[in-house]
Predict the structure.
Amino acid sequence: MRECFELRDADAGGRIGELTVPRAETTVETPALLPVINPNLDTISPRRLAEEFGAEILITNSYIIHGTEDVREQALEEGLHEMLEFPGAIMTDSGSFQLSEYGDIDVTTEEILEFQHAIGSDIGTPVDIPTPPDVSRERAEDELATTQERLEVAEDVETGDMLVTAPVQGSTYPDLREEAGRHADATDLDVFPVGAVVPLMNDYRYDDMVDAVAAAKRGLGADAPVHLFGAGHPMMFALGVAMGCDLFDSAAYALYARDDRYLTVRGTRQLEDLEYFPCSCPVCTSNSPDDIRALPDREREEELAAHNLHVTFAEIRRIKQAIRAGNLLELVEQRARAHPTMLDGYRTLLDHAAQLEGSDPVSKGAFFYTSHESARRPEVLRHHQRLDRLETPESLFLTEGEPARGDEFDDSWRVEPPFGPFPRSLSKSYPLTAEVPERTDRAALEAAAEGICRLVEANPGMDVALGHRDWPSEVLALLPDEVELIDLTVA
Amino acid sequence: MRECFELRDADAGGRIGELTVPRAETTVETPALLPVINPNLDTISPRRLAEEFGAEILITNSYIIHGTEDVREQALEEGLHEMLEFPGAIMTDSGSFQLSEYGDIDVTTEEILEFQHAIGSDIGTPVDIPTPPDVSRERAEDELATTQERLEVAEDVETGDMLVTAPVQGSTYPDLREEAGRHADATDLDVFPVGAVVPLMNDYRYDDMVDAVAAAKRGLGADAPVHLFGAGHPMMFALGVAMGCDLFDSAAYALYARDDRYLTVRGTRQLEDLEYFPCSCPVCTSNSPDDIRALPDREREEELAAHNLHVTFAEIRRIKQAIRAGNLLELVEQRARAHPTMLDGYRTLLDHAAQLEGSDPVSKGAFFYTSHESARRPEVLRHHQRLDRLETPESLFLTEGEPARGDEFDDSWRVEPPFGPFPRSLSKSYPLTAEVPERTDRAALEAAAEGICRLVEANPGMDVALGHRDWPSEVLALLPDEVELIDLTVA
Ligand SMILES: [Mg+2]
Ligand SMILES: [Mg+2]
Ligand SMILES: [Zn+2]
Ligand SMILES: [Zn+2]
């Protein structure tokens, strides 16, 4: 187990963890949101972030501080904590983002890490190369090699008890992301940003974002704290957490406020388009959109930023509570309906069900079947895998609900979409206690049929009959020929 | 148009309306939430409901007031508005609920309406018979006949400018609900509660609730303000509004608070199970669950009731904003994932797509395809109906994306799941500007195939080819034989 990170609870790929930040003499509970502070202008003061919004950690840019003389001198003299008046942990970025935007920066990893250490940062960052999506494989490989050299340099810089991040790059090549994750994990660095996903987010490519994170996670160990770098929209936090991300940073709360943009977990709204505030936060319960529109620029920006932060932190709490209750994927189900690209993201997450199954607890609250997508959840996959190992009688009657017949068989098992067959003795164990809709769907029936297939394959020679109620012929066609079919709706 | 109710905007079956309440000299914007006030104990004072939560209308029970001597005398003397200190509109219930619970009450419709008028109620209610679900048809018919007699009595009671409700009963018989709606609509009464749905809600029978509302709505005119009587859980407001309900009442906010129950749009939580507050309201941003648990009973109840109200009113605002923006069904999509029974409710709503299509605007923002269910939305149905009337050439090439070939044809149309075919000139008009996932699904493809079938049926003899990319054979099998199939992925 990595010393600085301890896992407390898990659901799907998501987890509640404790990141110990020795230099700040504090621990940060994850999933955590790091508000981005621009040292040159702050919309909401760091002190207010801590006191009013409960921020335990924030992030600021050491490259900007380094490049702004008076701020640099102040930071060196007072230290970041005093300068920003923030009691929690402070992470610093290195200028890699500026590198990716402007093509050139004038510090090395060594210099910037030493500077970060000198100004009292609690978590520092080397200068990696944020390779954008869709570049040539050659470029992705070359830049990854450079990033990896920089991480090795970073390991040797004298940074005391400051934690240091090891960004994971690799563009849109899953094998490179995985290799980058494995390399980073093998360093003695501490926190692992999945880098250069901002261009994916900007283009709503949540499917590709999920693939990038999944690949990085395969390389990183389960005990690595993962930062989804540059991901600040609350709409996608649940998806990111379910894939195994622990840290998010948000510049969006302030940048969007500056443009009169209003965050919601269903997407972004323009203030001018709102006739009602779809929110219960202190800003939205004591003001109407007209009230806010009537404010002078600076105050309007501050109120919108406060709303944006309330929504953002509430979603983080909602996610933590969902992990505790074991219904994180039910929350992802809802968020997936915010935009068709979020649905793509969720469908892609389910491609990685086998990977998520590894960390998913064997028992939780109740499994809720709430869409066709639910049929592909890790819990269903796990049940199917288990079917290979269950002991079976010589002849077996499978049926939904109570056995309507089956005296001729040695035993009768239940069949429940989407899980498929199971011995009645398991009826009260997770996930077979699932709540399912009365109106089932073909995805659930097909998954049940798949379960039957696995059971039959694992038990050649077993005599099997299925008593079903009006299953569609396409679903029945999925079953092996040796399964005898009995339509129970025919008297 | 009914004088007291004016429609301002619509989306699916939902609408924003203005209910004019002459006796209160006010108008109430709908959808509206009526907090239920128990005249004997109030957790949150009516004045605070108005000032802090923006309540424009509340409901209290005239039967309880009538039966409690000191309260009755005070109400008769001061009037309800002064007694409750509430500046908005006040609706009164009649004791029908008590009748359904205890089997007997000691007032007649005439008496209770006169009493309601005497105490200054703005919207009064006769004593109808709330027939529970699943009773015999005979009982449902008998009781409906009684309810209808009472409505006729109510028409003749002298009630000045007090509005009077006409409850719609009929148990779980859709034809009776529809007939009851038609009868109520023909009276000169003003507001139309769909009654006796509480037992359905208590059993999570959102599917049956939707069918009951749909039937009542078929009988009522579009201009009738509809009250979903006893429905106070914010999880189902969007579903109720999308079916055409305008008024909701909530006793839940207070009753649940008394039992340490915490409302969310994803369902109810027990305070003891919460480690984090999944909410951004003033209560939840300034307290942790531990803080609230540590409070004395009375204060804890008040804080929970305040949270419950914040969530409830925020959902009403969210729904109104969704109607304005034209994305109410996208909100219903999300709420449908709160519980499998809510999914049943949404799937049932889509059974009534043709009914909802009647009020759905022809143009809105962007249609978001966010689930298999989206394929059955009214907008898809409308496009299919339109296909019967579009002018077609003698030979037509249909294809996803750009025409890869088609020179041999008179024209080339686009095919987009879930809509199906349309002339390229319509590409920029609603709903064909839809945002759809990159990963389409079989429901979308099947709906597109259905569109092709309609087009072909409406144009016998037309020469049609479909250029598709790897459509599954089950979907292709839905197409008429005369459609030539060209798999564009085969070079
Ligand atoms: Mg893509
Ligand atoms: Mg049912
Ligand atoms: Zn807000
Ligand atoms: Zn709250």
